[in-house]
Amino acid sequence: MSSFVDQLLAKHHSVYTESITHPLTNELCQGTLPDYKLFTYLTQDLKFFQVGLNLFGKTLALCDDAKAAITLGKQIGFVSNDENDYFFKCLDQLKSENLVELKLKVPQMLQEDPITLPQVQSYIDLLNYLVFECNSYVEVITFMYVMEEVYLGWANYHLEKGTIPKDLAYKYNEWIILHSGEAFTGWVQFLKNEVNRVVTTEDAKKKSEQIFLQTLTLEIDFFGACYDYSEDPQ
């Protein structure tokens, strides 16, 4: 018999597939995503990331299993270092290499306090609910799982297809490395196992599925908003 999470993935297969095959991540993996689109995406994702660090703490606080809590604690350290470093290094690189394009296409993303796209704000609103209002480990761990599963999904989609160039630039390749490989795959599997472990009642199943589908939809909207954004009338 398939697990609860596998049942959700099968039931919402079309939405999940859409989330891991978006033009933004397709072009990122192929090394063809324009700098201004990548800059917009990373600027918006950094906003999400900074709030998201609080979610790790909330998840750890709600976790009822000592072994699982240790895994969560270790991941906080990894995310705080490796992903955080990539954001700032890559954003600086994009500004140094293509500032003219960024000023033309997305000048508001260059501000000290960049605008937050509406679709991104909707995602952050859910994140804030989970951090500051929600006390359901089922909802929080489901959100964590879906968020990370989408990233593993789009990376593996292209790794398995063999569409990632061998000489891919750092600005693309490092983001793929951070969301693939044995360690990240193990982390996503841990989250999946946690969802399966704690979803034991009909009420829990209902809550988990609602967050599952909501998160997938918000991921798609996030990618779309960043991909489509431009202030250049041309």
From TrEMBL:
<feature type="active site" description="Proton donor">
    <location>
        <position position="219"/>
    </location>
</feature>
<dbReference type="InterPro" id="IPR050967">
    <property type="entry name" value="Thiamine_Salvage_TenA"/>
</dbReference>
<dbReference type="InterPro" id="IPR026285">
    <property type="entry name" value="TenA_E"/>
</dbReference>
<feature type="binding site">
    <location>
        <position position="148"/>
    </location>
    <ligand>
        <name>substrate</name>
    </ligand>
</feature>
<protein>
    <submittedName>
        <fullName>Transcription regulator</fullName>
    </submittedName>
</protein>
<feature type="binding site">
    <location>
        <position position="83"/>
    </location>
    <ligand>
        <name>substrate</name>
    </ligand>
</feature>
<feature type="domain" description="Thiaminase-2/PQQC">
    <location>
        <begin position="10"/>
        <end position="228"/>
    </location>
</feature>
<dbReference type="Pfam" id="PF03070">
    <property type="entry name" value="TENA_THI-4"/>
</dbReference>
<dbReference type="GO" id="GO:0005829">
    <property type="term" value="C:cytosol"/>
</dbReference>
<feature type="binding site">
    <location>
        <position position="45"/>
    </location>
    <ligand>
        <name>substrate</name>
    </ligand>
</feature>
<dbReference type="GO" id="GO:0006772">
    <property type="term" value="P:thiamine metabolic process"/>
</dbReference>
<dbReference type="InterPro" id="IPR016084">
    <property type="entry name" value="Haem_Oase-like_multi-hlx"/>
</dbReference>
<dbReference type="InterPro" id="IPR004305">
    <property type="entry name" value="Thiaminase-2/PQQC"/>
</dbReference>
